Amino acid sequence: MAPDRHDVLVIGAGVSGLTTALQLARQGLAVRIVAADAPGQTSSAAAGALWDPIYANHPRVGAWAARSYDEFARMAGDGVRLVDGVEAAREPMTTPDWALGLPGYRECEPADLPAGFVHGWRYRAPIIDMPHYLARLERLVREAGGTFAFGERLGSLAEVDAPIVVNCSGAGAHDLVGDAEVHPIRGQLVAVRNPGLTEFFAEHTAELGEMTYLIPQGAVLLLGGSAEPGMADRLPDPEIAAAIVKRCGDVFPAVLAAEVLEHRVGVRPSRPMIRLEHEERDGRHVVHNYGHSGAGVSTSWGCADDVKALVLELLAG
Fold first, then answer.
1. Dihedral, CA atoms, 212, 216, 222, 225, nearest 10 degrees?
2. Which pTM does this prediction carry?
3. What is the pLDDT at residue 306?
4. What's the CATH superfamily of 1-79+129-182+271-317?
5. Which residues contact 55 (CB under 8 A, 6 or more apart)?
6. Which of 256, 224, 244 is nearest to 52 (CA)?
7. pLDDT at residue 279 greater than cutoff 90
8. pLDDT in tens, 282-307
9. Do β-strands 106-107 and 147-150 pair in parallel, antiparallel, or remain unpaired?
């Protein structure tokens, strides 16, 4: 196959773009990724990345998340850990169905929960060190024959010369394809030197907003989080950071004295429903895969499988 010929062009080098490109390249397709930012500079690199299939809407979220859980479990090591922990809510609720069959699942007793929380459950979840994991995915894509063009910010799909385009542009789809339903939600977290936490804690909320989570990644502990609709810049806000540390300190007091290592800010691509579908546009086939809100990592492998199926169907004619 000529090196300058591409069967598929993938737009975006975040977790959705890389995972999708990898699945396509593993089919023997000539795949090229075009992205404004290299993987380590994308919003995906700033994610806390605890597997948790909430904050995204689509009838297939459950199936996509289950497929992704299985793949992360298979990939354990080299940036992926399986960690026990607690998810809890401040209001009475019923444990969601997706949690019931997970390894380590059990309901929490009231005494197991921090002050202010009234319901919770334990389970084992993949936790992904995103900068490390994205570098791993990029390496795997290259090993499978995929190529990259970073620093290219597309104004429209009319600039693309490929028979099939896979649009993993995240919040950028608002301008790239004129999708008024997708909008940015800025999220912030604080990385501190881990004072000894070995299990995760995640607050369960009905919608993205101010929340509390503590995600151990070895010597580093990630504290979160926030959600600021309509905000797309990636400058950390000191007041938000202080509020995050205070909330997490209420759950695990040792973090109040922990050394702050860095502040991370990313932009979630929020949409009323994940867009994963094929359309014919500007004389070419386009397969969309964006709008995952806060569940891009958790659904990444399942969504990539569905994109792969659509692309192979198109190529088969």
1. -20
2. 0.95
3. 98
4. NAD(P)-binding Rossmann-like Domain (3.40.50.720)
5. 207, 208, 268, 293, 294, 295
6. 224
7. yes
8. 788 999 999 999 899 999 999 999 99
9. unpaired
